[in-house]
Structure formats: C-alpha cells, structure tokens
Amino acid sequence: MLRLFLLLCIGYLLPAMPAAAMDSEWSTGKQARARLVPAVTGMGELQHISAALDLQISPGWHTYWRVPGDAGLPPRLDWAGSGNVADVAMLYPAPVRIQELDLTVFGYRDSLFLPLKITPQKPGESLSLRLKAEIMVCHEICIPETFQLVLDIPAAAAAPAAEATRIDDALKRRVPATENTVSLAIDTVVLGPDALVIAARSKNTFKSADVFAVVGDRVFTAMPEITPDAKDPRRALIRIAKPSDIDDLNGFLKGKTLNLTISDGGSALARDFQF
User: Fold this and answer.
1) Are the CB atoms for 241 and 190 separated by under 8 Å?
2) Domain parsing of the chain, residue ranges
3) In the CATH scheme, what is the code of domain 18-174?
4) What would the pLDDT profile of 38-53 be if each residue is shown by its tens digit?
5) Residue 170 and residue 92 in contact, taking contact as beta carbons nearer than 8 Å
6) CATH architecture, domain 184-274
7) Which residues pair with 53 in a beta bridge?
8) pLDDT class for 100, splitting at 50, 70, 90?
9) Cα(161)–Cα(163) distance, rounded to whole angstroms?
10) Which residues are registered as beta bridge partners of 222?
C-alpha cells in the first residue's frame, strides 16, 4: 500500500508531458487502405513539417499519378476542417507506365507513399489534419475509394516520429529532384515537327529509363525512343512523339509550360520548360 501511495504521489507531482503525434488509424476500403503518418512528434518552431499519405493497395491493383494518361483519375485530397494549416503540398513520386488494354496510364502498383509538405499558419502551435482522400484503384475494373483520416500534431518538441526515416527516404529517392544532379540531367529540349527531342544524361546509362511529358492536365503517352551516345552511354537523345490529335507541336506548346519527368534506376528529375 505504501508503495502504491508513493507512486500516486509522484504521478501527481510530476508535470504532465505533452502527447506525441501518432500515426492516424488505418481506414480500410474494398481494395485499399490508407493512413496519415507524420515525420515529427511535435511542431517545435518549424516553419514546415513533413508527413505522408500511406496507401496500401490490393496486389495487382493500381492507382494514378497527378496526370493519369488515357484513363483514370488523380488522387483528390480535401483538407477542409484542418486546423492551423496554411498549405499542404503533395510531392508525387515518379510514376510507372501501365497498360490497361489499349490504353496507357501512369501511376503506382500495389502502394503509394505520398510525401506531404505542410505549412502551419502559426508555427509553434498544435496542428490538426482532417483529410478526405478520394482515390481511384483499378484492376480490370475501377473502384473509387474514400478515406476519412485524422492526424493531430501537438505543440511539443519536434523529435523524429516512427516513420521519419521512411518519409525522408521517399523525399530523397522517390520524389523527383527539380534541378539537374550528378545522377540525372536534362541538357536541352528541341521541338521537332512531330516530336520532342531531349538531350539528357544519366549515371545509370538509361537502362531502365522512362520519360513523362506533361502540358497542363495532358501527358504525352507515346513510348520514348532512347538512343544512347555511342561514345558515352551516360548521354542519350530521347524522342517522344506528339499525340496524334496535335497537328502543330510548336503551335500547341507556344506560351505553355512543358514539365518533363525522367526516371532511371532509382533516380528521378522533373523540370519545367517554357516555349
């Protein structure tokens, strides 16, 4: 009894410790489940924090990139009801090319770990995330999945959370860089009469490369033709044919922004070009 009494006294006298941020509970749909995971246990005085939408999809099923291609819908994330949130940026990993019958789409098979950059309205104060995520998943048929997710991050010290390493790895290895690197670079983009011609460099010598050309909400679906340099296989010319319904490629791109994403051997690069 004396020991129990002392423990109760100690618990009463010690100051209450702020709760640490916990991963949201899994929300389960028909062919997928989702949760939110933070990179930090508390807000600290950070101007931005990282988190991720962790989406697990049934084997053989897939979901879509921000620009799906010939079919599909991109993820729709609604943050209405969140507290102390000024902005949430979605940092998409480079996708893979997927054939659906005679259609070409771009997305992710079996899973999507989508990093998020969150800007609080008031740094140092607690933050609450309320997410309605609408995700289309497909395998011969398509099913819309809707997930309601909740994540609270207290006004406590910003120590690494359980998924911090995984989020950091996704940001470094899966989300495309926005400037040329030693691993991957785009040197020039030339508009031919019926194709884009890209001069690029890759440390991985384009052994598993793919290229995604996006203008607005449209992506060129033609398979890139990659011709390595005979003297230096780390350099290549990449040709992407224009869509068949575009007569004048120069006219189509005039005044618009072309976003090029290249992935090769675990490296990815995304750059914008104005015409």
Assistant:
1) no
2) 18-174, 184-274
3) 2.60.40
4) 999 999 999 999 999 9
5) no
6) Sandwich (2.60)
7) 36, 114
8) confident
9) 6
10) none
